[in-house]
Give the backbone structure.
Amino acid sequence: MSNLVQRLEITAHPQLEKSLGYRGDSRWVAWRWEPDIDQLIFSDGKIVGTGNNMAWLVFLQHDLVQPALQEYNFGEGDRYWLLLDTETRNLYVGEGKAVQSLLEQPESLALLACLDGGNAGKTAETWQQTRAQVTATTAFRHLTNVIPFGIAAALIGALGVGTGWWVVPTVQQKLAEKTTFTSPISSVANCGIGGSDDFSAYVGSSTGDKELHLIGVYEANAEHGKANLSKSAIQVKVERRNKPIILALSAYEPVNWNVTVEPGAVIEKIIVNGYNNQTVSGVSGIPIQVHSYEATGNYIGDFIYKWGTNPESNTPSLVTKLEQTSRTSLTSFQGCYRGTNFSIK
């Protein structure tokens, strides 16, 4: 594929993004397959999360979709991403680095929407007016004919729209030099062997001077009737060296959280949330706040092990309270019903 992004000849059903597991409100969202963990991943430029694997496979195999997408190997590889404009319902395909870079630059996606089918004979004055409209609002008119994004970039450069917009010599340079936020979610998170095989995750931004990472499970082992913490251990390895970390650990059943801190990683504080007794081992000299109904008579919030808006997850409550307590926005969540080990990379 020679262009950065190409529009497909199919349009999206009004419920596609919800069916694939995206519940956000961004205009643009993209999906890709992550072969290391056999999981559908979505990104809207602000958050990254896990999607609905079965719905993805059903979508790819549909009679109207399969002929348009089969060459991109969406069901097995991660080279190409599927990009959706939720306003026009147009679908695009592009290589991962290009789509990720576009998602992080909304003005570029706005131009893509405007240029998608525009008249190549527009004057420079008209393009200046378009630029002003792009800056003022995200409600852009849909143009029906196809102009691949590579050609659109060339048009912008030729018309001299101005600094701050992509021109041909800088497109590849920006894609090559673009430094991206490294996801803290590791493929070694284990909810399958001895676990419940229902791993879910969320990745937010990292804009402050520290990061908040949350790991949530319901239990570590099915044999917790006698609250034997020696049989209810979860291994947590912290490798991330970006910034100091506030580590939040949450479970309903009793868990011994065995934390390993790799050289260079800094944990500022550990916050433990549980209904039954929770303990932390493997570390020393790190402040630990334990909140469990059994041990202290109180807990921070609901016990989530699945990210999303389903009733059983109660995601916003615990997250909101943790963010308020730590004065830090959530950087990542990972969890499952029964977990055995997790890693923050």
